[in-house]
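Q: My collaborator sent me two sequences in one message, no labels, and asked for predicted structures for both. Can we handle them in order? The first one she listed is below.
A: Yes, handling them in the order given. First sequence, followed by its structure tokens:
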Amino acid sequence: FDSLESPQEYYLSRQGDPWDFDYGRTDAGAAAMGSLASGGRVGDPIRAVCPVSDDVLILGCTRSLWALRGDPTAGGYVARLSEHAGILGPNAWCTDDAGTLYFLGETGLYALRGAGRCENLSRSRAPALGGLDAVGCGTPGAAGRTFVTLAYDADRHGVLILLTPFEPASPGTHYFLDLRTDSLWPERYPLAVGPTCAAYYNAADPARRRLLLGGRDGRLYAFDEALRGDTAGGAAEAAVASHVWTAPVALAGPARDAVVTRLDGTLAADSDAVTYGLHAADTAEGVLAAGAAASGTWAAGRNGPDRTRVRGGAHALRIANDQPGRWAFETAGIEWTEGGELR
């Protein structure tokens, strides 16, 4: 689609004939070529080609985004959508069932709805997703380079952002964008899985319809809701370590501390057990670095109360599981009294 000599230009073969690049023809289905640049400027290299509908083709450059609408030789035209947001590589994009385009650029994770305005989804939640030093696309073996793949998971209603280092010693950190709750979750997979690529297999048979992950070890992997651990590289089922933090809360306001006197929690009826820890510090920032002042185990259903006294200017709850299983957290309740002024 693009050349090494002129990476800012696109080349389209004749419709229905991938071998016909005769640009001298003028009929509606003839081959076409063009440049993605504003007047008087050299355009950015084209990195991704994203067909979002029969009439719109999104062209992702390193730092700009363009839309090719219609047939170029029959009234079609190219319009710039963004002069700042680009796409990192040929697989760094996907579309969901509503036609929304999701893509990863140098400045973060974006959504493009209806070929209109680009929305940055990660700026405030995962700023590490942006930046050339954090994520790149290049030749295998290059230091700091990463396999970048986005895939829509129709079964779990979200987008997988897969960032697998070329170097096999590092598992990398991936993300799952849950479209139902508009939340972004970091994930890690076994080294054998990687994954280095992903695609949704939209089979006619619903039993075969699933998201497939291409592993470093040459195997294809898929998510299985019946399992309670990972099976990677032909090994036996292994535990998946998972945890979640609640946001730190200043219960008594910004100038006073609070003393938590009671804590209880509720898990789903079919949930496996979890461990919990109540963390406290003078500031919200310090809570994440502080050790658990109170901890224990919760089983399915309602648990508690834990009447350990925990004083602090801010409190947060960490819930975790590192055993084979699945867990679902529903609610946590606390009782507290106001303490003294923060120093």
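Q: And the one she listed second?
A: Here it is, processed independently of the first:
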Amino acid sequence: MKTLLCGMLFCCATIQSTHAATTWHVGASRQYTTPSAVSNLVRLGDTVQIDAGVYTADVCRWTASHLVIQGIGGRAELRSQGLVYGSKAIWVVCGDSCQISNINFYDATCPDANGAGIRLEGHRLSIDHCEFTHNQDGILCGALHPSTVNISHCEFNANGAGDGYSHNLYIGNVDTLIFEYNYSHSAKVGHELKSRANVNIIRYNRISNESDGTASRNIDLPNGGTAVLVGNEIEQGSQSQNSNMIEFGLEGLSNPGPQRILLSHNTLVNDLGKGSFVQVAAGSDSVIAYNNLLAGNGSWISGASSNRLIDKANTQRSHLGDWAFVDASIYNYQLSPTSPAIDSGVVDLPTMMQVDREYLHPMSWTTRCSDGKPDLGAHELCSSDDVPVGTPEHSIRTFPNPCSDLLHFTHTVQSIELYSAEGRRVLTSGNCASIDVSSLNSGIYLVRVEGTTRLLSIVH
């Protein structure tokens, strides 16, 4: 019988982790004028508020866990002038379960060509509303378990040392990467996004080489596992160093199975004019696709036999001009009223592949409307009679992700539903802050919590 753990358990844990926490203020007019001045003083659960402004040649290491580090009054800009801490990064984050927001990271370099804006060495990290520009790596982390990396509303621009081994961001072998509402573009030879995570949830982003980018792949998932790509704008530029846009498992399918990649309502534009949209390693279990829009030349899927592709919407590929985008020359892939993508999608999608939002440039989202006949791709052409199917952004977070026994929420919630990938409701509860999920099979589930949705990975 399912056990529901409400209120008290979570509140006790919260009080223990935040008791006597201190808020540290950093800024030109403060006692502590740079982030490095407090990095060795902070303790478990502290908050560091950094005034907006430019902090030059200041690098440091954060060792405490459960830190909240945030720019206040605008973005705090860390312009390293090529400096890094410990031959690694502008910030080396060693503590567990830290949150970083409203910080910009510029110009990290080191002799091994892996100077990063952030180097993650602790377990679990959330980053939002940050910018990573002209570093050798935007974010870099290695093998960390158990660990989830959440990245949202961030920009990654022109990172990479130009050697093909450094990238806009490089996530190592963690349990789960959740990458939402981000803008990753113009990488230097490396990938716009590379991740070895066991589970990759990549939703509502713009991932593009554009005219000045020389990136290799848009998305490189070299060790397979489970990947869910929903509602993304993905554009391969004319200077791309590789002819396939999305890669899955080409360095060995070493992540836990099933080895599958799921693509729904993505707009994929190949301005290189050759290659493939998706390349999948032999031995992958499946490529499952719904309502994607492919523009430009190139094969839909390569590298695996065609019976690996389960395309439920008969994904359509055509020349760029045939789709009647609003203005593809400036990467605006909204649909004009004459687009053949309108009303061409199928309605019944697996739960985790359904869309309720769209990427809104830059680094944001808007609700997706519906008239009951979905359009292909990342955008829906709306009329006055259409209704929004999305929900407002909500502050509720689920953690840990992945989890094995208990799933927590950032505060007590009144309505909780978990759905399997097939759309079957497997658990429901209410007025709780924690629920027991130990009896559920390993896999990805959709969590609906009071007007918002999250994808959750459960491992045992």
